[in-house]
Design goal:
Elements: E1 11-16, H1 21-36, E2 46-50, H2 56-70, H3 78-86, E3 88-92, H4 101-108, E4 114-119, H5 126-135, E5 144-147, H6 155-166, E6 174-176, H7 184-195, E7 208-216, H8 225-229, H9 232-250, H10 259-271, E8 281-286, H11 295-299, E9 309-314, E10 326-331, E11 338-345, E12 363-369, E13 373-381, E14 390-398, H12 399-403, H13 405-408, H14 413-423, H15 432-452, E15 457-459, H16 467-474
Parallel strand pairs: 1-2, 1-4, 2-3, 4-5, 5-6, 7-10, 8-15
Antiparallel strand pairs: 7-11, 8-9, 9-10, 11-12, 12-13, 13-14
The structure holds NADP nicotinamide-adenine-dinucleotide phosphate.
NADP nicotinamide-adenine-dinucleotide phosphate is lined by residues 16-23, 50-52, 94-96, 120-123, 125, 148-150.
């Protein structure tokens, strides 16, 4: 049984940066899958826009190649591919020039459809795009714009970007994407917390010992070396993706599942974060593997002090979380590709089974990848004779197994988020003040490293990160969960 497809209003979508990597790998395949799911009207326009000179046929060939590479299972349906490509066209334009803009405006004029513009270009072009959309009459009230990360590289630049967009668009028209928020499990996190009686009463510092959030990658910086080296793990991952996960785990129940109610609660979490002390921060850089170069050679700078790994201990100063630390880590070239949140509950106040039963804790693990799902570690009696020995076993709910084909059919993050843009639902998008608050917390961390001349600690490729990150938890009498697929 296929997952239920909820109809959306007719729409046109312009992808600025339509010839770029993100368009090829994510946006175009996502649109094709939504087309196949029947969520695109027959006359919907998908328009790629970039500087490269190309006609519609040339762009269709580009899109077709992208589908072949990034959506190989879907292209066996040649009729569907042909149908989708009929709706695709291209306009050559420069974000900063005038050529091409009138052609785009003419193509969209008089259309009775939601019009969305995906800014899949570097942030330095956001202002020019917004300006041109306005001056060529494409920034009407119903228009929506989608902007990609990075949203600034510090508080000042994020404020400037917000101001640039605000000059032409209302906040309700701006969709700042964090694709982590489009993941099925992330939304399930809210369903589990606020749709069940079981967890919420325990969701506080009285019962939760600590929370761990891990986003580990096995790949290095690859071809993105130059970009990455200007950013680092703190800006590229922690300030946005991990921070968003932290917010969803820690926020108070919103009064309703509505965009501003949810985002208000997330914002309160960010604002309640304490500044992070130097002793609670660890940075790392990966070393060479047998056949793969180290970080410094990959980015082409032997003296770079940018981190490919960061771990930290965060504290939230509010009634719910005072005393419960949040340990966050993310890095490249680690042992396995894993994204998970682990809520580690406290031990029972007293063991009636005596010391031989050992010490046990319930751990609720929310896995974003691999095998999206959750498991709850519960303590039971080890089977067999020989007294009361206890053992922890998982109550595992891998979504694909629990829900069958329906779970395998769920849209990926980009599909869901693009459709939310069309629906006008901003719940899973970051609001301007949220992004600014996240930078306000991140900036002093980075400034501290710079002021101290901090250098990242080396770690082996394929490891769990630098030694000091293990110490970060050891010294609190805790330990990280193993990084394994
Ligand atoms: P990219 O491969 O470098 O593509 C950039 C696109 O922008 C190309 O289509 C380029 O085409 C177009 N472009 C550049 N200058 C232009 C101009 N003056 N006027 C009009 N079009 C122009 O970059 P990308 O990887 O797709 O990333 C796009 C944005 O998404 C960036 O902000 C990036 O940080 C963000 N992002 C990317 C990823 C990813 O996985 N790739 C993930 C998250 C966020 P022409 O050269 O033909 O003009």
């Amino acid at each position: 049984m296929a997952s239920r497809v909820i109809p959306v209003d007719p729409f046109d979508l312009v992808v600025f940066g339509g010839t770029g990597d993100l368009a090829r790998r994510k946006i175009l395949p996502a649109l094709f899958r939504r087309f196949c799911a029947g969520q695109m009207e027959e006359n919907a326009l998908i328009i790629g826009a970039a500087r490269s000179p190309m006609d519609d046929e040339g762009y269709r060939a580009f899109v077709s190649a992208a589908l072949e590479e990034f959506n190989p299972s879907g292209i066996s349906d040649t009729e569907a591919v042909a149908g989708f490509l009929r709706q695709v066209s291209y306009v050559a334009l420069d974000a900063t020039g005038t050529e091409g803009w009138q052609i785009l405006a003419n193509r969209l004029r008089g259309r009775d459809a939601v019009q969305a513009f995906y800014f899949s270009v570097g942030p330095s072009l956001f202002g020019a795009l917004a300006e041109h959309l306005h001056s060529y009459g494409m920034a009407g009230q119903g228009t929506r714009i989608v902007v990609e990360k990075p949203f600034g590289r510090d508080l000042t630049s994020a404020k400037a970007l917000n101001a640039t967009l605000a000059a032409h668009f209302d906040e309700s028209q701006i969709y700042r994407i964090d694709h982590y928020l489009g993941k099925e499990t992330v939304q399930n996190l809210m369903a589990v917390r606020f749709g069940n009686m079981l967890f919420e009463p325990l969701w506080n510092s009285q019962y939760v010992d600590h929370i761990q959030i891990t986003v580990a990658e096995t790949v290095g910086v690859g071809g993105r070396g130059e970009y990455y080296d200007r950013s680092g793990a703190m800006r590229d991952m922690m300030q946005n993706h991990l921070m968003q996960l932290l917010c969803l785990i820690a926020m108070e129940p919103p009064a309703k599942f509505d965009p501003d109610a949810v985002r208000d609660e997330k914002l309160k979490v960010i604002r309640a974060l304490d500044p992070v002390e130097a002793v609670d921060l660890v940075r790392g850089q990966y070393e060479a593997d047998e056949d793969k170069p180290d970080y410094r050679s990959q980015v082409g700078d032997a003296d770079t002090t940018t981190e490919s790994f960061v771990a930290l201990k965060a504290r939230i100063s509010n009634w719910r979380w005072a005393g419960t630390p949040f340990y966050l880590r993310t890095g490249k070239r680690l042992r396995a590709k894993v994204s998970e949140i682990a809520v580690v509950f406290k031990e029972t106040p007293h063991s009636i089974f005596g010391p031989e039963a050992g010490r046990h804790r319930n751990i609720l693990t929310i896995r974003l990848q691999p095998n999206e799902g959750m498991d709850l570690g519960v303590t039971i009696k080890e089977p067999g004779p020989g007294g009361m020995r206890l053992v922890d076993v998982p109550l595992d709910m891998t979504f694909a197994e629990a829900l069958g084909p329906e779970a395998e059919d769920v849209p990926d993050a980009y599909e869901r988020l693009i459709m939310d843009v069309i629906r006008g639902n901003q719940t899973l998008f970051m609001r301007g003040d949220e992004v600014e608050a996240a930078w306000a917390w991140t900036d002093p961390i980075i400034a501290g490293w710079e002021a101290r001349g901090d250098t990242p600690q080396a770690y082996d490729s394929g490891s769990s990160g630098p030694e000091d990150s293990l110490m970060l938890m050891h010294r609190d009498g805790r330990k990280w969960r193993e990084i394994r697929a």
